[in-house]
Design brief:
2 helices, 72% helix
Length: 50
């Protein structure tokens, strides 16, 4: 069975998107700080969406 979720834009998804952005910037610059910045941005966006 396929389950459809009412809110597919949950906090975990946004934190994952922020992490992916941070990893992409890390791949370009080789500075691991960008991963933490991406996680923080994703968390902030998910907190504001509620």
């Amino acid at each position: 069975m396929i389950k459809k979720f009412k809110d597919s834009n949950n906090g975990g998804t946004l934190i994952g998107v922020g992490t992916a952005i941070g990893v992409a910037v890390f791949a370009i610059t080789n500075e691991p700080t960008w991963i933490a910045v991406g996680v923080a941005i994703g968390a902030a966006i998910s907190w504001m969406k509620k």
